[in-house]
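Lab channel / #folding
Pinned by the channel admin:
"Please post every new chain as: sequence first, then the structure tokens as a reply. Keep commentary short and put observations after the output so the thread stays searchable."

First post following the new format, from NK:
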Amino acid sequence: MNTIETLLTQIAQSHLGIQSLETRNSDSLDFHDVAVWSLREALAAAYKAGAEQGAPTHKAAKARRAGKQRTSSK
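Reply from TO:
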């Protein structure tokens, strides 16, 4: 399982009570009733995780752009 799949599975388990995101070809295992507040918490956790993983990349790109601007203005 890759990092994203692992993270999504952990979010599903902790916020939605869903043990696996794998298709198991069983209605009772593949379909779930979920409260909207639990879904909101799971979506917020996924958004936060994505923002945290993307933040260093965004900061690095911003630093590179700033460095290029200083170099080109010389």
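NK: The chain has a mean pLDDT of 88.
TO: also worth noting, The longest helix spans residues 36-72.
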